[in-house]
Amino acid sequence: MTFLSQAKRYLGPRPAALVAEASHVDGLKQRTIRAGAARLAGQGGRAVLRLGTIVVLARLLDPSDFGLVAMVTVITGVFEIFMTGGLSAATVQRVEISDRQISTLFWVNMAIGVLLALLCLAAAPLLNVFYEQPKTAYVLAALAPSFIFNAAGVQHIALLQRRLRYATLSSIEVGSELVAGALSIGLALAGWSYWALVIGVVAAPLVITVGAWIATGWIPSGPRRDNDVSSMLRFGGTVTLNNLIVYIAYNLEKVLLGRYFGADALGLYGRAYELINLPTRILNGAVGSVAFSALSRLQTDPARFRTYFLKGYSLVVSLTLPTTILCAVLADDIILVVLGPKWKDAAEIFRLLAPTILVFGMINPLGWLLWSVGLQDRSLKVAFVLCPIVICSYLIGIPYGPTGVAFAYSVAMTLWLVPHVMWCVHGTPVGFGDLMSAVARPLLSGIAAAAAALLVQHLAAPIPYPLVRLALAGAAMGLVYIATLVFVMRQKELYVDLLRGLKGAT
User: Fold this and answer.
1) Which sign, positive or negative, has the C-alpha torsion 58, 61, 66, 72?
2) Residue 68's domain spans which residues?
3) What is the per-residue pLDDT across 70-96, written as a single tens digit (0 to 9) for each?
4) 3-state class (DSSP) for residue 165
5) Do the Cβ atoms of 249 and 237 come closer than 8 Å?
6) Please, which pLDDT band fits residue 497 given cuts at 50, 70 and 90?
7) Mean pLDDT score across all residues of the chain
């Protein structure tokens, strides 16, 4: 099969490509559940690979190596927001879209990618001045090609998402994680220090883009002026600005810690933050992308929209809340097992960040809700209010170092939770009470399970092996949580329905 014929297969006949697919919602439940299962499996595989890479690299490299790279990646993270221009979300969200429009968006993404690569090279000397660390300039310059690699795959990935081909997408992402992790570990063993991390960061988007091109078989045509593309650019611009504000709110503390406390302190904070946020980020990313694709097809059907959203939301919080509570309860042993003894100072940071990640688990899914019904302007307004609140908490905590920042961050996010949820759901098919009911069951079950884990941890304290203590306490918490959620909180039907849907989709 030629690339052109494959493109017709995936996009439909020109010029009305992809129009019919959006209007067909028959069997959407089964396709969504199947896509969600594939996405969860793929993200689970990525999480295992990422965790394994962290375990190995934490023993091969020093905190200062991670801190040095984090000083740069927190800046390039801003560039990455502009890289997609929100245009992947625009491709997925549109009810109708043509091959010509997607091709135009592809070239817009490529122009943005080249511009960001040039900005990396131009900003490298400035980063050296800001951090007073010459190595950061070399790292930033080395990361420049990754923006071009990423840009070349934005629309191909969006096509896979739009058609709910998450099994394919997950396979590509797992492959990229495997390649990047193997490269980083191999180079670390060869003594490349922080360069091992840098090469891994560059390799991942290259592998994903190559895989996405092969999977879709789609080759873009030349760009053309189109009024509908202009509206998509406006949508993408709003999404991009929203993501930028949220990114600044959630990452400015890393810039401040790197500037005032150095690479070691940022290395400890950054590893603690990434580790405790890993389950929430993976699960929300897995379910969220599928949910956004499905909900965008249901934006004109409020009843089905509400049902689909609440099931996806319940699944996310029932998985993210207990894992975060587990991290808080067993922080010391988790850090010893995953990162090793030289990272023991990260345990307190890890524990203090737990409330922040709990709130993330509850509010992050509201992004799918707002974007899928076209309320991206409200999402932007929420971000504009959230940003100064969180930044003020950093400024209060920064004199006390990483632990002070973690504590102040968690206090601010906890106080913000209820206003955030009420604002987001106002006037949508989903009510505030619906979300509180969905959160209450896994949260209460998690608290009961945490009590069991604390008891087992106390009894297992004499055991000299942290892995054994962690396994015992974690098993106790898992068993109590599942039993409480399924039988006491009567959530059995939710998971049985998901399993039925998955079986019907196979």
Assistant:
1) negative
2) 3-505
3) 889 888 888 887 776 565 666 665 656
4) coil
5) no
6) low
7) 82
